[in-house]
């Protein structure tokens, strides 16, 4: 064994404290990032490996000297990550960065580290480690020629479960066939579904009655989804996933989902303005069909969490303020709101940068809670004010109780239907 000490960090925006509180284990989803990276490190290479998930753990600079520090982060946590990188480099560590932000802006990230690993890690992390051990590490690694056979089973046993939901996460297909302008998914991943048997074996080994699928579009490959759900059915688990709006028109797919244990889907409805959806290159743009879609999903015994993005160029102040009432009329069981955030690597970022509409590159504000660009019809400050108002109104006690009662009635109706 080579006497080299390794520290793995999944960085977290230090200003975002909401997910670190007393009740964070009720709504903080488990991350697979560190678990996947751990599974890619060959046995016997390092004398010691320490792992820090900064969502619930602290990075300590002087507790121990590390020869190698590897940091993964998203745009919103990049400022915090840079602080860690600079501190460990000052102490003599070799620092490597990866993740969405490093993939989108490698030259910026290289100012704070010695090596950038961009894109998927399955081939590049083992390659870098071989080079590092041999004394020939490169500044930049990227290899997108990753197939489903390269995906390891995440080393979940190495990662803390502190302050996380106790529902394990699984990914069957990281990619999505859509090209929405606000989404950074295609910066990192391509469509590459795993073998159905491999996914089922992983789920079975978890020995959990509930599972969350992190696939960005679980039903995007219809034939694959049907095959996977057929194989999941004998496991008698309950699960939830992401879906797109057109899922609500495919009754065969919805019934197969319910029978295999699906009890909820999260759908990016994004806007109730058709022009806004069109401008974002959303594939399904018929907002008049949303109510029918949600009713169809309910008719198959599944809840719907609808997500909305505020700040598209065609959004008006009146439409945004009306969102809570319109959510009521749609019959959604849950709803989430975000301010449109043009992340580096997305089409919107390219467009807004060319138009001079990016008003800050303080990446710590790229949390979807702040307006980091100039909207068309209102000021950034007003957009943030509307965002807070809509959240507050949508989650008034009256509305929460109404949604809870409505879905209970839907389940009762479904269970006792002939």
Strand share of the residues?
Answer: 15-25%
Largest sheet, strands/sense/barrel: 6 strands, parallel
Q: Structural class, from helix and strand content?
A: alpha/beta
Q: Overall mean pLDDT score?
A: 90
Provide the gyration radius in Å: 22 Å
End-to-end CA span: 65 Å
The main sheet orders its strands as 2-1-3-4-5-6
Number of strands: 12
Work out the helicity level. 25-40%
* Low-confidence segments: none
Number of helices: 16
The best one-word shape is globular
Q: What is the structure about, briefly put?
A:
This protein has about 425 residues and is an alpha/beta fold.
Describe the structure.
- The structure is a single chain.
- This protein is α/β, with parallel strands linked by helices and 418 residues long.
- 35% of the residues lie in helices and 15% in strands.
- The strands form two sheets. The protein has a six-stranded parallel β-sheet, with helices on both faces. A six-stranded parallel β-sheet has the order 7-8-9-10-11-12.
- Strand 3 (68-72), helix 2 (78-90) and strand 4 (94-98) form a beta-alpha-beta unit.
- Helix 13 (323-330) packs parallel to helix 15.
- The relative contact order is 0.09.
Task: Give descriptors for this structure.
alpha/beta, 16 helices, 35% helix, globular, 6-stranded parallel beta sheet, 12 strands, 418 residues
